[in-house]
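User
New here, explain this?
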Amino acid sequence: MNLKSIKLETENYLKSKGLEPNPNLPLIENINEVSPRNARDVASRMFAMSNLIGMGYGAKRSRLKKDLKTFQLWPFVTEAERKNLNSFRLSEDIKVHYQWLCECCQALAWCLNLVEMDHFKRCDPDLSDKVPPKTDPSSFIEKATLRPMIDIQRQVDLLYRLHWNAKFRDRHMNVKNLNYNVIVERRRAIDWVYGLGKRWDDIALDT
């Protein structure tokens, strides 16, 4: 399926949800313009985040750091996250940031066929059972497989266009459960899988 067809498919879906797509948004990057991540990297980042979420809920950061290193997930922790793990105290805003990582985990779990994904709902209440922290994920990582790239490409396009709607959600008050943070965090994760940025912190999230 070409990118114009994917764009049209997304726009029709948005209309079915009561949203007005922005027809002026350009096509997303083609597959030959990006460098998608492999299944092992996606799984490793997902399990790293499942541990990092603990920073949002008062988990001992020394324990989190130890587990991340023990389970060989440390290479998948960003520089900013390492800094927070070593900080004396975390601000309330930083804690909230780590709480929202559950939506990134939901997106990566979707890429790995662990969950389904409805962008008008929050992450699965049992997500932590499917992506458990404080446990050795090596067996799962070894066997991990990604959904077909065309499905991931569709999600990149959908979240890109849905981000624009969520950014101006005051125009769509008739649409229930359009949560800006859910859309942004999931888009960040899906764009990273698709290869839009060399590092997690490089994901632009332009609209």
